[in-house]
Amino acid sequence: MFPTPIQKASGPTRLAYQIALPIALVIWLFPLIGVAVTSLRPASDLAAGNYFGVPSSIAFENYASVFRDSPIGWYILNSFKVTIPTVIGAVGLSCLTGFALAVYGFRANLWVFFAFVAGNFIPFQILMVPVRDLTLKAGLYDSTLGLVLFHVAFQTGFCTLFMRNFIKGMPFALIESARVEGVSEWQIFRHIVLPLMRPAIAALSVLVFTFVWNDYFWATVLVQGQHAMPVTAGLYALNGQWVAAWHLVSAGSIVAALPPVLMFFLMQRHFIAGLTLGATKG
Amino acid sequence: MAEVSLSNVKKDFGAISIIKGIDLEIKDGEFCVFVGPSGCGKSTLLRMIAGLEDISQGALRIGGRDMTKIGPSDRGVAMVFQSYALYPHMTVGENIGFGLRMTGHEKAEIAKRTAAAAKMLQLEPLLERKPGQLSGGQRQRVAIGRAIVRNPEVFLFDEPLSNLDASLRVQMRGEISRLHQDLGATMIYVTHDQVEAMTMADKIVVLSAGRIEQVGSPLELYHRPKNLFVAGFIGSPKMNFIPVDARPHNGGIEVTLPGGATLQLAGTLAAAGKMTLGLRPEHASATGAGDAVLPAKVQLAEHLGSETLFFVSLADGTEIAVKADGLAAERPGDTMQIGFPARACHLFDADGNAVLNGDLTR
Ligand SMILES: Nc1ncnc2c1ncn2[C@@H]1O[C@H](COP(=O)(O)OP(=O)(O)O)[C@@H](O)[C@H]1O
Ligand SMILES: [Mg+2]
Q1: Does residue B163 lie in a domain region?
Q2: Which residues of A touch B102 (CB under 8 A)?
Q3: Residue B177 shares a structural domain with residue B261
Q4: Rounded mean pLDDT, A8-22
Q5: A78 and A23 in a common domain
Q6: Which of A82-91, A236-245, B275-284, B332-341 has the lowest mean pLDDT?
């Protein structure tokens, strides 16, 4: 087997592994640990210059005051208002486009597919000015709807690539067999392909959710006012308000980072590999 | 009534012609087997009948209706795939009833028909399982169950047994034959295994490279192969082919066998020439009984208990197989006398077409 399982490696290799792994882990997690510890540090510690030492007490009230003294709850709500429709829109659309591209051999099939793939290679930052102008003209500037529409547009390319390849990997005989049984194309999509796509839908949902939730670029380009501002851009605004209140900024960051993590654990049980097991000979 | 008729049906994939003009009539209720070597276009032809491949040229009629341009869902046929193609997320019961559910049948009707199909195929204890929890033979039965609940007039099978082990294959062969007797539906069955074809078919269609070589009942193909291809394909072990010189002689045919012995065959021949003599291993005599006797050296002896299969080489090195008694004692290196009975011999001309078929009733 390659790579050799670490349990079977020689003694010194195993020892080196056991030492290196925790070190790598700590280095990797250091910024996160720093933020987490700071978020629980009372304000007095920071005032006394205790930036990196052990906190003098655990200050859960930091979290309460973040919610009380700032509009972060509102920002988080905005983030949900942007992220959830985007996930539904991008994943839903790409189920349909992926199905069409994987199942039907129409003439322009490959070209349409390439168009979706090629979109992924455009660095989206260069679209900043035209997209902003477009949203302004369309009356979508400074609204969550505008963000949703543009996120859906930008995410659908990658999602289509992902879904098309996933459906291509299914045994095509399943679709043919249903056709011979007199099942309509829409029913085939709805009752055979869609249920089998569950692992792909779960994986993509988490990916898109995380990406859109963490998006800062479009949030600042397309939104100005508090009423539509997602939490990423909102935190930046708080940075200005709480110039030296790092404990509060840290607590806000932790709160803002939680939803993607929760989303991952929520969706995890759907990532069952081998769902098509037993469809064919096997 | 569901007879299937193909007239001059052709299929091209791009510039490559795969099915090169098939004319075929399959009667209502007939069990028709397409047999031929791998890659000869059997599956393609079956899929064209199912509607899964377009028909490039020609016409297809099922039950008298022109189906050439009709989609698969409207042809009223059922197909069992080589890979079974069971829906992995549905239970056995749901798999069987799925087609009915999607085509708007009532719940009670679906339940009744599913139960009947499950009973017929002994699937009753498995109805709640998922396909992943079934053995190969059970999956195969579910795939057949899915086909029979719809009461189709035409069943299509694409090598349904090729993924099963040998003993299960024999058992399922019997079950499919019984199903055919019970349902009386038209069945078209694709296989590359001539034993399956011989044991199940009313009518065998031998295909090679996209063309029909011969159509006939199993015994017709066995006794009267039209050409070398069919002669070599039908029958196990294969028919022996021996290069000979043949000429007209005394109102019959005289052939010179390797080593110089001659054999008189009934029949007429227009001109002399190099030809191929065909003799099945079961018709050659290991004890030297026959109208011509040739010495041969044993190369290999396979003792199967009920019979012994000798592979022997003739004077010119031609290897032939001879079926002998299970107790035959010759060993490799021994010399045997092989008898050629004239009435069992086939003769093929230089183009491979049969000039003469043996006639065991003579
Ligand atoms: N979709 C396709 N495109 C191109 N060639 C094909 C296609 N399907 C089958 N063929 C070719 O047609 C020939 C016959 O295939 P098939 O009908 O599957 O043979 P078999 O007799 O083994 O079932 C093969 O040479 C195969 O490569
Ligand atoms: Mg095939």
Answers
A1: yes
A2: 178, 181-184, 187, 191
A3: no
A4: 88
A5: no
A6: A236-245
pLDDT at B133 over 80: yes
- Whether the per-residue pLDDT at A122 is higher than 60: the answer is yes
Structure confidence at residue A43 (pLDDT): 86
A166-175, pLDDT tens digit by residue?
999 999 999 9
Closest CA to B191 of B349, B182, B176, B180: B176
pLDDT, mean of residues A114-140: 90
Q: Do the beta carbons of residue A174 and residue B87 sit within 8 Å?
A: yes
Regarding whether A100 and A14 lie in a shared domain, the answer is no
Inter-chain contact A187–B136, Cβ cutoff 8 Å? no
Residues B137 and B222 both lie in one domain = yes
Q: Note whether ipTM > 0.90 here.
A: no
Q: Whose CA is nearest to atom 25 of ligand 1?
A: B39
pLDDT at B88 over 90: yes
Please give the Cα distance from A117 to B154 (Å, whole number).
Answer: 44
Q: Amino acid letter at A151?
A: H
Say what the pLDDT of residue A275 is: 46
Residue B103 forms part of a structural domain: yes
Q: Which residue of A has its CA nearest to B100?
A: A181
Distance between CA atoms of B125 and B345, rounded to whole angstroms? 53
Q: Are residues A77 and A44 in the same domain?
A: no
The answer to whether residues A15 and A143 belong to one domain is no
Residues A151 and A19 in one domain: no
Chain A nearest-CA residue for B80: A177
Q: For residue B137, what are its two tokens?
A: 């033979």
Which of A165-169, B88-92, B268-272 has the weakest average pLDDT?
Answer: B268-272
Find the domain containing A38 and state its range: 6-62
Q: Which residues of B fall within a CB distance of 8 Å from A187? A: 102
Domain span at residue B194 reads 4-230
Q: Are A191 and B51 a contacting pair at CB < 8 A?
A: no
Structure-model confidence comparison of residues B269 and B43, the more confident one: B43
Instruction: Collect all residues of chain B within an 8 Å Cβ-Cβ radius of residue A276.
Output: 88
Q: Which long-range contacts (CB under 8 A, 24 or more apart) does B165-170 make?
A: B165/B136, B168/B136, B168/B137, B169/B196
Q: In this structure, are A18 and A118 located in the same domain?
A: no
Kindly report which listed range (A155-169, B183-197, B259-273) carries the lowest average pLDDT score: B259-273
Kindly state whether residues A15 and A88 are assigned to the same domain. no
